[in-house]
Amino acid sequence: MMIFIEQRMYLSPRDIKKAAIIDEGWKLLDSDNSFVGNFIEGGYRTARKYRGAYITISQGIEDFDGDAASVAAKAAWSNSSFKIILRQNLEAFRKYNQRNPDQFNVLERTVIEGFPSAKDAHFSAFMLRVAGQVSYHRLLIDPISRSLFSTDGKDYQFRENELAKGRSSQEILYALAQQKFPAEMEKLASWQTTTRH
């Protein structure tokens, strides 16, 4: 897979934008395999020349910039122009800041520590750092999209069970959204009836 990604990134025309998105990046970042390390480090250092980007998603900052982070992980962190910081485990975040007091200023720490759980708030709060400039945002998505992207075990099993029954993805997501977010779905339905011509 890594060879395929590298070939697509470096051998395809440079006028085409490319992005390699690695979810659960800690699995790759923690690897002792030198090929994996070279893949990450080389990708983060050179992708921009090829109109490309590497995006690595992981649970915590420690995976990239902690004491036990690999050389490749630290290279990925230091060569990333864009950093998106979501809600962190409070205890781990505070320990990280004790060891890295210059990474976040007092205001940034306070705001990050105050990010609510996305599951409870129905939005994701995040800090965006681009070339040293910081801004704060909320990502709000509709209940059907939340049903689609949910990684909750019960939601996943509901989708799988309904697929096995032969229901369409659209029907399943609508049913799950109705079940989990009835008030929002009712509000959306009222908007739909008022906007039809």
TrEMBL record:
InterPro entries linked: F-pilin_assembly_TraC (IPR053155), P-loop_NTPase (IPR027417), P-loop_TraG (IPR043964)
Entry-linked Pfam families: P-loop_TraG
Domain named TraG P-loop: residues: 3-89
Record-linked Gene3D superfamilies: P-loop containing nucleotide triphosphate hydrolases
Protein name: TraG P-loop domain-containing protein
Organism annotation: Providencia stuartii
